[in-house]
Automatic annotation (TrEMBL):
GO CC terms in record: membrane
Name used for this protein in its record: Phosphonates import ATP-binding protein PhnC 2
InterPro entries: AAA+_ATPase, ABC_transporter-like_ATP-bd, ABC_transporter-like_CS, ABC_transpr_PhnC, MetN_ABC_transporter-like, P-loop_NTPase
Gene: phnC2
GO molecular-function term, one example from the UniProt record: ABC-type phosphonate transporter activity
Taxonomic lineage: Bacteria, Pseudomonadati, Pseudomonadota, Alphaproteobacteria, Rhodobacterales
Any Pfam family: ABC_tran
Assigned keywords, A-Z: ATP-binding, Cell membrane, Membrane, Nucleotide-binding, Translocase, Transport
Organism in which the protein naturally occurs: Agaricicola taiwanensis
Annotated ranges, domain ABC transporter: 4-249
Amino acid sequence: MTAITVSNLSKSYGAVQALKEVSLTLARGEMVALIGASGSGKSTLIRHIAGLETGDGASGKVEVLGQVSQAGGRMSGHARRGKVAVIFQQFNLVGRLSVLTNVLIGHLGRAPRWRGTLGLFNRHEKEKAQAALARVGIPQVARQRSSTLSGGQQQRAAIARTLVQEAEILIADEPISALDPSSARRVMDVLADINGKDNITVLVSLHQVEYARRYCKRTVAMRDGAIVYDGPSTALSNDFLAELYGSASEELVLPDAPAEQMAPPHKAEPRNYQTALMSA
Ligand SMILES: Nc1ncnc2c1ncn2[C@@H]1O[C@H](COP(=O)(O)OP(=O)(O)OP(=O)(O)O)[C@@H](O)[C@H]1O
């Protein structure tokens, strides 16, 4: 069973065609990077996969974990939305609530609604949330108000909530673009860790192709609403990016973090990655 199948999906906003007959399949357990210059359609595609918007036309379809979530511009009632978690660039947490409470919100799909609404989580749920925070490396912040966390900690708390939710797919829309390089690496390490150990399928959109090369075996590249490359991240040399994107490729390259300064990621085969980074 595939995790995500997008077939022939198009979407226009007025005169702007944000998605042009996009087709894409992710197998379960993959960690795939989605790259593209600003305005290329990454967020639009992610919103459609997440079930937040419907496409245009009769032929567009999105399937999640083997069930149709939208087809022909209509949402399907059978979507397995609880199995899909989405993390955005910012504002993933309720700032005035504690970090633990934000993570506990991941239980809401399963706990009776009245209990969640009243904040009545049981001991097992609280232990699970605390363990999820430990898993993403921030157990010490559980009692803090979420608004006091750094940007990277906030992203990791949002990933902890994904674990509590028992999501099978995590879609992250530019989760590191507001972060400094070391925080960005930590967040990407956590994504790679939950992908490798929990077999959670990860689709992560990125501006900086360095991270795609380092963390994801496969990259899907968009330009002007269409997929222009879908293949091994190792092929994404700077020359190839320049060929794909022209001058917009400058936006995708990370000038201040040479690839060789980065430690090998959790899930990569180190030798292959080294080779890829050297040749990039
Ligand atoms: N709700 C909307 N209303 C009008 N236009 C939109 C809307 N959402 C997206 N667009 C347009 O669709 C195109 C694709 O936008 P999208 O946000 O998907 O790009 P992106 O690749 O995610 O860009 P960025 O990297 O800057 O986030 C852009 O031209 C954008 O202006």
